[in-house]
Amino acid sequence: MNTSSPSTGLRGLIAAAIFAALASSFSAVSAADSSSASITVKYADLNVASPSGARVLYERIQTAAQSACNYFWFKTDADEARCVQNTIAKAVTKVDQPALTAVYNAKYKISAPSTLVSQSR
Fold first, then answer.
1. From first to last of its 121 residues, what are the pLDDT tens digits of the chain?
2. CA-to-CA distance for 106 and 71, rounded, in angstroms?
3. What is the spatial distance between Cα 27 and Cα 5, in angstroms, rounded to a whole number?
4. Residues 6+ apart with CB under 8 A from 64
5. Half-sphere exposure of 94 toward its Cβ, with a 13 Å CA cutoff?
6. Where are the domains of the chain?
7. What percent of the chain is helix, strand and coil (3-state, nearest 5)?
8. Is 61 in contact with 85 (CB distance < 8 Å)?
9. What is the pTM of this model?
10. Backbone dihedral region of 18: left (phi > 0), alpha (psi from -120 to 50 degrees) or beta?
11. Number of H helices and number of E strands within the chain?
């Protein structure tokens, strides 16, 4: 006599489908390139030319960079720290404000890259 009901078989099928979906999402995350995550940081409410506005923007950028880099799996804490620092450097370069660059330079004791891409017309 077969004691399995149709609902038991359906539950097993659903569980297998969920497991397969989770397994494929984990492999996609682990293989993702850390440059593919992005978070928009808004700063229209700040005067980034002032030291205090630049510090607030730097904190927002740092928080966003940590969130973006936490999305990925790194082998070491140093790899994750490098992701955060590189992400912050790219954002500081993109904003291109001397006061923000000064905050970055004071934090890392190095200069942010002066430009990411040359602008030609």
1. 555 555 556 666 565 556 555 444 443 344 445 456 788 999 999 999 999 999 999 999 999 999 999 888 888 889 999 999 999 999 999 999 999 999 999 998 776 665 544 444 3
2. 27
3. 34
4. 39, 41, 87, 91
5. 12
6. 41-113
7. 60, 0, 40
8. no
9. 0.63
10. alpha
11. 4, 0
Angle at 103 between CA 97 and CA 104, to 5 degrees: 90
40 CB burial (10 A radius; 0-12, 13-18, 19+): exposed
In 3D space, the residue among 67, 47, 65 whose CA is nearest the CA of residue 55 turns out to be 47
- Which is nearest to 40 in space by CA: 69, 70, 60? 60
Question: Which residue is it, tokens 């590189």?
Answer: 86
- Tokens for 117, please give them: 């891409």
